[in-house]
Amino acid sequence: MENPVIVAIDGPSGTGKSSTSKAVAAKLGLSYLDTGAQYRAITWWMLNNGIDVDDPVAVADSAGKPSIVSGSDPANPTITVDGVDASAPIRTQEVTAAVSAVSAVPEVRTRMVELQRAAGAAAPAGIVVEGRDIGTTVFPAATVKIFLTASAEARAARRSGELKGALSVADTQAALVKRDAADSGRTTSPLAMAADAVEVDTTDLTLEQVIECIVTLVEEKRAPR
Ligand code: DC
């Protein structure tokens, strides 16, 4: 049998990470894990339980409390917190505004990394894992590491489209740039490109082109030499 493959897909928000990662996993018959959804889920739990998300000590003390379970089917990724479906509430502006502070707390990251490595170990054929620190910290020996980028304008236009115009493109861009700065500037596993990652600038590529590019890279690595 072939060794399970781990495909790490990192990059800032709005680069098409989720659509790309799900499609690559489906095409290659691999499991899928959205680690951003896990950080959003623990943030949602903190907000619901009256934890001050700007108090790192309070966040650290509670980091072990919620049970977070991710379904790994790329056609139907699910996430529950203490058994409750969290897929819609983790996408609210309230959670988006609080998630960088919560995910900067080392105890939160340790807990999430454990869950992420366990998901990798449980995936029979392998897994596509998307996030910010997958190639650098979670799976430093991943089979293929991709770092997706795009201009701030392109990222804001895509995200604003996903939000169905709830926020203007200019406001979306300002929020994205702020969150990227927080995610890149934190001390514990910041958003960063691994030295051995392939950078794919998606600004002028279609989703199909990005998917094809990554599928080809994985197939090349899998092919017997
Ligand atoms: O991919 P996303 O926008 O849903 O991620 C939400 C937040 O979670 C993001 O602002 C930073 C954090 N995150 C992280 O710190 N590490 C990861 N591996 C994935 C996400």
Which descriptors apply to this entry?
alpha/beta; 49% helix; 9 helices; 16% strand; 225 residues; single chain; Rossmann fold; binds 2'-deoxycytidine-5'-monophosphate
Q: Secondary-structure blueprint of this entry?
A:
Elements: E1 5-10, H1 17-28, E2 31-34, H2 35-48, H3 56-62, E3 68-71, E4 78-81, E5 84-85, H4 93-103, H5 106-122, E6 126-131, H6 134-138, E7 144-149, H7 152-162, H8 169-185, E8 198-201, H9 207-222
Parallel strand pairs: 1-6, 1-7, 2-6, 7-8
Antiparallel strand pairs: 3-4, 4-5
Helix pairs in contact: 1-9, 2-4, 2-5, 4-8, 7-8
The structure holds 2'-deoxycytidine-5'-monophosphate (DC).
Residues 13, 35-36, 39-40, 99-100, 103, 131-133, 179, 183 line the site of 2'-deoxycytidine-5'-monophosphate.
Short description:
The protein is of the alpha/beta class and 225 residues long. The protein has a single domain, classed as P-loop containing nucleotide triphosphate hydrolases (Rossmann fold). The protein is 49% helix and 16% strand.
Q: What is the averaged pLDDT score?
A: 94
Bound molecules: 2'-deoxycytidine-5'-monophosphate
Major sheet summary line: 5 strands, parallel
Give the count of structural domains. 1
Percent range of helical residues? 40-55%
Given as residue ranges, the uncertain stretches (5+ residues, pLDDT < 50) are none
What's the β-strand tally? 8
Distance between the termini: 15 Å
- The CATH homologous superfamily name equals P-loop containing nucleotide triphosphate hydrolases
Strand content: 15-25%
**CATH top level assignment:** Alpha Beta
Radius of gyration: 17 Å
- Arrangement of strands in the largest sheet: 2-6-1-7-8
Q: What is the CATH architecture assignment?
A: 3-Layer(aba) Sandwich
